[in-house]
Amino acid sequence: MSTTIVTVGAAPLTPAEVVAVARDGARVEIAPAAFARVAESRALIERRASDPAPHYGVSTGFGALATTFIAPERRRQLQASLIRSHAAGTGAEVEGEVVRALQVLRLQTLASGRTGVRAEVVMTYAGLLNAGIVPIVREYGSLGCSGDLAPLAHVALAAMGEGEVRVAGERVDAAAALAAASLAPLVLEEKEGLALINGTDGMLGMLLLALADLDVLFDTADIAAALSIESQLGTAAVFAEDLMALRPQVGQATSAARLRALLEPSPIVQSHRGPEDGRVQDAYSLRCAPQVHGAARDTADHARLIATRELQAVVDNPVVTLDGRIESNGNFHGAPVAYVLDFLAIAVADIASISERRTDRALDVARNRELPPFLADEAGVDSGLMIAQYAAAGIVSELKRLAVPASVDSIPSSAMQEDHVSMGWSAARKLRRAIDGLARVLAVEVITGSRALDLRAPLQPGPGTGAVRDLLRQEGVAGPGHDRFVSPDIETATELVISGAVRAAAFEGGK
């Protein structure tokens, strides 16, 4: 576990703090001021619990059963039954980092003092995180409205000492894991079961993780493009700052600046600069890289704005207002998050598409400016990177399918009480798969561009692109030569892309 400590309940969590808890195992602590808010709102709930008039989630059933009054002696059973019945996920296990993101985001809402839970609930959720107890959550079960009900219910079930969890990767009974961590199973009181499952935490957590990944991948897309442009004897002149200023798109300017920084010092680019260069203009996949990459950057910035707002939200139903009312509301609807998850999937698919087109150009003897066919050592005997491009093309095709929005596919549930849902969880799940695909497509372009650079010898690449090429060679990714087993090279390059090592080599090692 990380030695970093993230404080919950003092101010809204930042994206970096959520990622630190989810991905790096940072510990959490509860701000002292949070306990006063929690106690105050819990007192309101307890007063309403003794009121003979029905109050949703406190003394009634849920969803379509909201008008069913529940007697006080049955309310613990009501809350436990809610969790058990809603823990209805199915399919493959969800990644541990996603579950931890979901846990810490729900903890933030519980610590807000707007949900009406007891301090014991807050402390138990913090204890689960700090003990490294990761409830097993299943792939399918959330419609993204009334929150991510099934995923959150699986976490709540574990807090009750039921179901299964993972600790240090080992699958164990939740009761045993709680006992080993000296945590008492929760016995839920009025309103608490509902407070544990009514939120957009799963989809928001996946959005925050995706944005962290895309910060790396969009920079890497610029690097991959620079490798392709340089090795295909393209021009950097079209990325000039004054040309970019004619279209003041922020992301475009950022990508163009990165391309200039990588390409302008390159001896290969310098070798054909000037009037002796007979090429009028490069193909779109080379020339328009900053326009496409920049649009993706701007999309991510919009998604980050929505995510930052959602991090400031208290999502529960009913919710305890600042002036002490207990009110039903619709803030659990995941539409704001679902839309940007789908928007990002479109951007990811297009970045991968333009990357694959640059790779294809590098392998085509008719377009790669005197490089060998498929960058093969002995064309005919060797196939070079022919099938690596097939792999990239296959991924791009899937990414286009994954770009179809999930958020337009509402389906009614709960006897038509919940008759419009966001499908935000589904949007997040497909975005995670798309991001993995983009990393692999970029890895193929990085491998291809690096091999093409070697084939331009004795001309030398720029410092940044050369550092990327050298990184691949140091990690065992093959350069020019007779055919070898390609798949391990792609896997190695993919890890270097995802980890940020390619980005670091280009922008730090290349200085």
Structural class: mainly alpha
Helix content: 55-70%
What's the overall average pLDDT, rounded?
93
Percentage of β-strand residues: 5-15%
Q: What's the shape?
A: elongated
Biggest sheet, strands in spatial order?
A: 4-6-7
Show unreliable segments. Answer: none
Major beta-sheet overview: 3 strands, antiparallel
Corresponding CATH architecture of the largest domain: Up-down Bundle
CATH topology description of the largest domain: Fumarase C, Chain A, domain 2
Question: Which value, in Å, is the CA radius of gyration?
Answer: 26 Å
Distance between the termini: 33 Å
Indicate how many domains the architecture comprises. 2
Instruction: Give me the count of strands.
Output: 9
CATH superfamily membership of the largest domain: Fumarase/aspartase (Central domain)
**Strand-and-helix sequence, N→C?**
EHEHHEHHEEHEEHHHHHHHHEEHHHHHH
CATH top level of the largest domain? Mainly Alpha
Query: What is the count of DSSP helices, taking H or I runs of 4+ residues?
Result: 20
Q: What kind of oligomer do you see?
A: single chain
Characteristic terms for this protein:
Fumarase C, Chain B, domain 1, 9 strands, mainly alpha, 56% helix, three-stranded antiparallel beta sheet, 511 residues, 6% strand, Fumarase C, Chain A, domain 2
In words, what does this structure look like?
It is a single chain. With 511 residues, this protein is mainly alpha-helical. Helices cover 56% and strands 6% of the residues. It folds into two domains: 5-199, Fumarase C, Chain B, domain 1 (Orthogonal Bundle); 213-273 and 280-308 and 342-509, Fumarase C, Chain A, domain 2, CATH 1.20.200.10. It is built from 20 helices and nine strands. A three-stranded antiparallel sheet has the order 4-6-7. Helix 1 (15-24) links the parallel strand 1 and strand 2. Helix 1 packs across helix 4 (96-110), helix 3 (75-86) crosses helix 6 and helix 18 packs across helix 20 (501-509). The longest helix has 32 residues, at 424-455. The two termini are 33 Å apart. The mean pLDDT is 93. It is an enzyme of class 4 (lyase).
